[in-house]
């Protein structure tokens, strides 16, 4: 079955231009929930795209056709005919697919390049990245640019996400044919995690079709290597990161991951916008994935959720014992070293549940703790969305002692479920938790500082009235995408104005 290309065409979007025309918003992303996901990127792009559609925009999302896509979308139909994409010294056949019965929302196009994406992982396997990641995502970026005029009618705005799609912005401004085609096309780059920049040796220049004239200190060169994120930053009309505080951090030598001077150079073209969550999904009063629903007005069933979570992790059901929770990737960024080296935490008569997988050293350390303290520590390495909902609904205190956190989504979900976060005052954590009102913040990245915030949280927990007041305050917080989507619309307008000034 072949789906006509007109399937992507829709009514004019809400992103109007001064000349009365409209633009389709085109997202390029390496991850998109639920089809391909390793962290917050997938959910952030999905959330933004969905709320843009709800606001009246026409939105098309391009994502690679990984093997994992078939788990969630087994029935796919081709969009038009295959095309040949020339990159470097090789040509690849590329096909484009959509779901046969797509849900309402953004139009999601899967880019099928079997040699690049028909693999067991998204970025690598067995703890190692694929050695050809630069070419894989270069092919994806180049293929999308060839697909846009075939699949989308009218002007577009290209919104790329992270280093994986940064080359699309370089191609648009460096290849003569693409320069002409996209001369009036505004571009935006979102930096979800600047700790991952796409560093590669200069030997990838030919295989990724990177012109030698852009491999210099002004664009893609970084200490003798190619830095794809840096290239995207220098070619984008506007750049966004995922919280205002993180935007400030990225402009500093200590927080810019070596690119602080580039972020400073961007000036007013660089903005921090806090991510949101879908509050219809993360709502304890409507959530069918938790043991019992509860609300601000009637929070009694949170106790049932706590008991069920304790059973799920093999812990004794002790209603009055504080229950701490952690869910996320088990990596250094998430502050696992603080947890494992905390004297206060592991001497407490309290319970801890951990959900998620990651680096082997952290997995083994947590499993060893669970074995040593079976009545106090529970660990599940197999992450599921359902268990994440149940964890948020059941824990009293949510742990987020991150080294850095561009935005973070779990602290938003936790507050909605009356689980007060203990988090480090960085990035989006600082922007979304009010200290001693909806959670507890600490500054120094040290076990001692972390332990002090744990002690403050426990002091409030021991006073049921004080804790109930803070739970209510947390559950009332509005973390919806509406305000963030409005700020993105303003960024899009500024990107469009920059293109018009350039022409």
Spans with pLDDT under 50 lasting ≥5 residues? 1-7, 9-20
The percent of residues in helical segments reads 25-40%
Task: Summarize model confidence as the mean pLDDT.
Answer: 93
Radius of gyration: 23 Å
Number of strand elements: 21
Overall 3D form: globular
How many helices does DSSP assign?
20
Helix/strand/pairing category: alpha/beta
- Beta-strand portion reads 15-25%
Distance between the termini: 42 Å
Largest sheet: 10 strands, mixed
Give a short synopsis of this structure:
By secondary structure, this protein is α/β, with parallel strands linked by helices. It contains 20 helices and 21 strands.
Q: What does the secondary structure layout of this molecule look like, with pairings?
A:
Elements: E1 24-28, H1 40-54, E2 59-64, H2 67-72, E3 76-78, E4 83-87, E5 90-99, E6 107-112, H3 114-117, E7 124-125, E8 128-129, H4 133-151, E9 156-161, H5 166-174, H6 176-181, E10 187-191, E11 199-200, H7 204-207, E12 221-222, E13 225-227, H8 228-235, E14 238-241, H9 244-250, H10 260-266, E15 270-272, H11 302-312, E16 323-327, H12 336-340, H13 343-347, E17 351-355, H14 360-372, E18 377-380, H15 385-394, E19 397-400, H16 410-416, E20 420-424, H17 427-432, E21 440-442, H18 447-461, H19 464-475, H20 482-502
Parallel strand pairs: 1-2, 1-9, 2-6, 9-10, 10-14, 14-15, 16-17, 16-19, 17-18, 19-20, 20-21
Antiparallel strand pairs: 3-5, 4-5, 5-6, 7-8, 11-13, 12-13
Account of the protein in words:
The protein has 503 residues and is an alpha/beta fold. Strands 1, 2, 3, 4, 5, 6, 9, 10, 14 and 15 form a ten-stranded mixed beta sheet that branches. Helix 17 (427-432) links the parallel strand 20 and strand 21 (440-442). The longest helix is centred in the last third of the chain and has 21 residues, at 482-502. The chain is globular and about 65 Å long. The model is unreliable at 1-7 and 9-20 (pLDDT under 50).
């Amino acid at each position: 079955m072949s789906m006509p290309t007109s399937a992507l065409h829709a009514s004019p979007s809400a992103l109007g231009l001064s000349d009365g025309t409209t633009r389709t918003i085109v997202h390029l992303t390496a991850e998109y929930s639920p089809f391909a996901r390793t962290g917050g990127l997938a959910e952030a792009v999905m959330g933004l795209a969905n709320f843009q559609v709800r606001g009246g925009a026409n939105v098309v999302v391009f994502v690679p056709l990984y093997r994992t896509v078939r788990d969630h979308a087994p029935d796919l139909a081709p969009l038009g005919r295959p095309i040949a994409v020339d990159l470097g010294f090789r040509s690849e056949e590329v096909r484009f697919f959509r779901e046969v019965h797509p849900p309402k929302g953004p139009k999601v196009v899967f880019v099928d390049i079997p040699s690049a994406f028909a693999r067991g992982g998204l970025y690598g396997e067995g703890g190692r990245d694929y050695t050809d990641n630069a070419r894989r995502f270069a092919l994806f970026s180049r293929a999308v640019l060839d697909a846009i005029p075939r699949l989308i009618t009218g002007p577009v705005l290209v919104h790329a996400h992270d280093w994986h799609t940064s080359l699309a912005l370089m191609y648009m401004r460096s290849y003569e044919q693409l320069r002409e085609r996209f001369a009036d096309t505004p571009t935006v780059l979102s930096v979800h995690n600047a700790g991952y920049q796409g560093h590669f040796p200069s030997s990838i220049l030919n295989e990724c079709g990177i012109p030698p004239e852009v491999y210099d200190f002004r664009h893609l060169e970084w200490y003798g290597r190619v830095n794809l994120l840096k290239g995207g930053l220098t070619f984008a009309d506007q750049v966004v990161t995922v919280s205002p505080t993180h935007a400030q951090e990225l402009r500093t030598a200590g927080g810019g991951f070596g690119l602080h001077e580039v972020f400073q150079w961007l000036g007013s073209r660089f903005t921090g916008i806090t991510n949101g969550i879908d509050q219809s999904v993360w709502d304890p009063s409507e959530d069918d994935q938790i043991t019992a629903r509860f609300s601000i007005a009637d929070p009694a069933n949170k106790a049932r959720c706590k008991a069920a979570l304790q059973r799920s992790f093999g812990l004794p059901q002790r209603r009055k014992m504080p229950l701490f929770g952690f869910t996320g990737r088990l990596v250094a960024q998430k502050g696992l070293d603080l947890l494992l080296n905390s004297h206060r935490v592991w001497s407490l008569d309290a319970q801890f549940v951990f959900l998620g997988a990651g680096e082997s050293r952290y997995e083994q350390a947590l499993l060893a703790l669970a074995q040593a303290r079976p009545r106090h520590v529970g660990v599940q390495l197999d992450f599921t969305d359902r268990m994440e909902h149940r964890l948020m609904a059941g824990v009293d205190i949510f742990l987020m002692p991150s080294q850095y956190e561009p935005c973070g989504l779990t602290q938003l979900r936790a507050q909605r479920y009356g689980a007060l976060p203990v988090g480090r005052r960085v990035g989006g954590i600082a922007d979304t938790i009010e200290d001693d009102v909806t959670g507890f913040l600490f500054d120094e990245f040290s076990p001692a500082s972390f332990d002090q915030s744990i002690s403050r949280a426990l002091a409030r927990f021991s006073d049921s009235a004080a804790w109930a007041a803070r739970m209510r305050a947390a559950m009332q917080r509005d973390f919806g995408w509406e305000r963030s989507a409005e700020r993105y619309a303003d960024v899009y307008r500024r990107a469009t104005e920059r293109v018009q000034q350039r022409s």
